[in-house]
Amino acid sequence: MSERINQHLNPLVGNNIRRLRKERGLKATEVIAKLQLENVNENGYNNPTVDMLVALTKIFECDFNEFFKTE
């Protein structure tokens, strides 16, 4: 099992995932389907796994640092 990124006090990663998804015009269900193709199951947890973030870099075609970006 992969380590999860705890977002309890700071939802920065989740907010950036949402931002990247919207910037690319993807629905949440489309991202989930693409994650499944990468053999990463999204179980509805608020805290993404490291494996999920790696897969999302491929899906969003972005750098890993995009998930930790503050604006």
Task: Please tell me about this protein's structure.
The chain is mainly α and 71 residues long. It is built from three helices and no strands. It has helices spanning 12-23, 28-37, 50-60. The longest helix is centred in the first third of the chain and has 12 residues, at 12-23. It is globular, with a radius of gyration of 11 Å.
Features:
0% strand, mainly alpha, 3 helices, 71 residues, 46% helix
Distance N to C terminus: 31 Å
Count of helical regions: 3
Rg from C-alpha positions? 11 Å
Assembly context of the chains:
single chain
The description of the largest β-sheet is: none
Please trace the helix and strand order, writing H or E for each element.
HHH
Percentage of β-strand residues: under 5%
Uncertain segments are: none
Shape: globular
- Average pLDDT: 87
Count of distinct strands: 0
